[in-house]
Each structure stands twice: as C-alpha cells, then as structure tokens.
Design goal:
Order of helices and strands: HHHEEHH
Shape: elongated
Oligomer: single chain
Structural class: mainly alpha
Number of domains: 2
Radius of gyration: 24 Å
Strand order of the largest sheet: 1-2
Number of helices: 5
Strand content: under 5%
Length: 160
C-alpha cells in the first residue's frame, strides 16, 4: 500500500510538474526563418502547445506505432517541417541546435530533449529551399526547350 502511494505521488509529480511550470506564461521570444514564424497559431492554440506539445506527440506516437494510424496534425515530422529554420543558402538548420526552436525553449524550461536520439532534427526527404528553387528553374527551362523542339519538329513534319 505504501509503495502504491509513493508511485501515485511520483506519477502525479511527473505528469503535472512540466505542465504547470512550462513557459510559466512567458511567450516564445525566438523568431527565426521558419514557416511557423508567419502563423497565428500552431495546430492547437499556442498556449496549449507550449505546455502540452509532448502530450500530443506521445498520443500521436502511440497511434502511429501501435495502431499504424498516420496523420499530419500532431506528427513529429510535421512539427519539424513547420518549425525548422533555414540559413542564407536555404539549408535547414537542425531544430535542436543552439539558438533554434526546440533547444531554446527546452533550455529555458530545463527540460531534456530526447526526441532527436531517434528522430531527424531537419526535414527528411525534403530538399532545401534553394535546391527546390534551382530545380524549378531548371525544369522550367527543360520544359520550354522540349516544347520548342516539339514545335520545331512539328513545323517540318507538316503538323500544326
């Protein structure tokens, strides 16, 4: 019975403490070069996300890993995609690097980040903004050239 009471008390402290003191009413002061910087709120109201984002991530993890249900609303990959900042060359800066979104808040609230021991800290499978822009320009020129060649061949073959 005594052990049960101790476990209950510890469980309450572990679950309630981060929620009560996280951010303590202080807004995020980090403004970088991320998609999230231009948004009014996250997938949930900002105050809720500041204090309870880890709860959403745990529930999403369980849905994904145990039940095989994948959604973007509270997915970790979606968080990274939206909150990651980019340098001058368009390369993603790891979100847990010094001065970046996750690291800054977790240092201020003295909470350890263990997500990135398994998860990527930059968008995976996505290209940098600069590479996408260059590829779009390159593809535009290839399409334009292809159309010119088709028109040119069509002119000689009598097709219009």
């Amino acid at each position: 019975m005594h052990q049960l009471a101790i476990r209950l008390l510890l469980s309450i402290l572990i679950l309630v403490t981060p929620n009560v003191f996280s951010h303590d009413g202080i807004n995020h002061s980090l403004i970088g070069k991320s998609k999230a910087d231009s948004q009014e709120q996250c997938v949930e109201p900002t105050e809720i996300m500041q204090k309870e984002h880890f709860v959403f991530l745990y529930h999403q993890r369980d849905k994904t890993v145990i039940k095989g249900v994948r959604t973007k609303n509270h997915s970790f990959a979606n968080c990274i995609d939206c909150h990651v900042s980019y340098d001058e060359k368009g390369k993603a800066i790891p979100i847990n690097s010094e001065g970046q979104f996750c690291q800054t808040c977790h240092v201020q609230t003295a909470v350890n980040i263990d997500c990135f021991s398994c998860h990527a800290s930059v968008p995976r499978g996505r290209k940098s903004v600069a590479k996408i822009t260059l590829e779009n320009e390159h593809n535009f020129h290839i399409t334009k050239l292809t159309n010119e060649i088709i028109n040119h061949v069509g002119d000689y073959s009598g097709e219009k």
